[in-house]
Write a structure and sequence with these properties.
493 residues; alpha/beta; Rossmann fold; six-stranded mixed sheet; 44% helix; binds pyridoxal-5'-phosphate; threonine synthase activity; EC 4.2.3.1; TrpB-like_PALP_sf
Amino acid sequence: MHYLSTRGDATARKFCDILLEGLAPDGGLYLPERYPQVNAAELARLRKVHAEQGYAALAFEILSLYIDDIPSADLRAICDKTYTAQVFGTREIVPLKPLEPGLFLLGLSNGPTLAFKDMAMQLLGHLFEYELGRRGEELNILGATSGDTGSAAEYAMRGKRGIRVFMLSPHGRMSPFQQAQMFSLQDANIHNIAIEGVFDDCQDIVKAVSNDLAFKARYRIGTVNSINWARLLAQVVYYFAGYFQATSDRVEAGGGPLPQPSPQRGEGAARVSFTVPSGNFGNVCAGHVARMMGLPVEHLVVATNENDVLDEFFRTGVYRVRAAADTRETSSPSMDISKASNFERFVFDLLGRDGAATRRLFAEQLPGQGFFDLSGDARFAQAAARYGFRSGRSTHADRLATIREVHARCGVTIDTHTADGVKVAREHLDGKPMLVLETALPIKFAQTITEALGHPPERPAQFVGIEDLPKRVSVLPAEVAGVKAAIAAQVSV
Ligand SMILES: *Cc1c(COP(=O)(O)O)cnc(C)c1O
């Protein structure tokens, strides 16, 4: 399997060549040259693997379709190390929870930081350590975070050989719980840097350091952002695991130990739909990849909050990025985006994988006029008809109402992002099992839960008293030089 860029660069690259890279050199995003096809017989085999050997074995099977430059035994060992009940809390790894008939939550948030980003980031940590070890290289990951991504990266990379993390966050602006999650890590390779400024200052510093190519090369600076193909690939696996659980006899019969195939029905006959609380379009893009592989998915419903760049596109065909000033701070903050950094991957497929056309949209029209308009393009209609996309948006009031209603009717407390998903899913029920991806646990957003329910959410046992743990963080002014010096002090060249 080779990888190509969405902007036309077709230099043949293998998985491990792009693993440690961000954007392709032409500014595009990497995609596999084709989507491996899973027919009914293969789907039945994967269902059996999942039922008999579990999530890690399923992950190995799916990853093997895309990765042929890691020996099988090694890749299997990496999957086995990553997806354990110890790290993800349950044997199912992504348990399916019924809310009401036909509506389910797919639990993706039981990893170390209680958000779905752990699903991919934990795998990335093991893949990075493996590949850097093979090459005899080191990597210094520099990132900016306002919460979820930074902590997922730190928990994935802590203690890994050959890797250091330098994570910038806005001083005093994360919630006490988020600060405690990150700053309580005592691992020697994790460096928290609180910047005296806002999140944009942190991001500007990361950009400035990365644009200093000499510094970047000398100190082997890398990133772990959501455009990394390996992260997206890891997320494809849970669409399969969700499908198998939702279409097993166990769900239909309402009990039993593990998902089993349904022998009286042909494999692939059952279809399901997914609703995905979305920001950068990484999570739902993995659903698109699963569907392109042949997973029987009816609809992929994109749920946004007030920052509705994606909903606007799927409704109108106009993709209009927002200025920083027009990006709202909401109570589902991990979806507060001004542009969706993975969206280019879907547009590339929509345009029949025409790299030159994709380049014109993303490298010329978007920077030039701030939007592009596909409403007059016959292929835009295919976004819904051929690729199954639907969309909707949710507001703070919707979030509160949904959290309250799901708590009252189903006895389940959901987080604010998942609430956006449930609200939009209900508007798109299509007679197929609807799986809403649960992207975080409510404890991370306790303030809004309290606003909705009048009491804070339950705190998982391992997080009791986390705010009282000793903190490991240095506070620096919002200046590039100081951050560079902090990196240089840790890295020998
Ligand atoms: C990152 C995140 C999202 C958005 O996912 P994308 O892949 O960026 O679309 C939604 N919910 C939570 C809790 C997140 O952390």
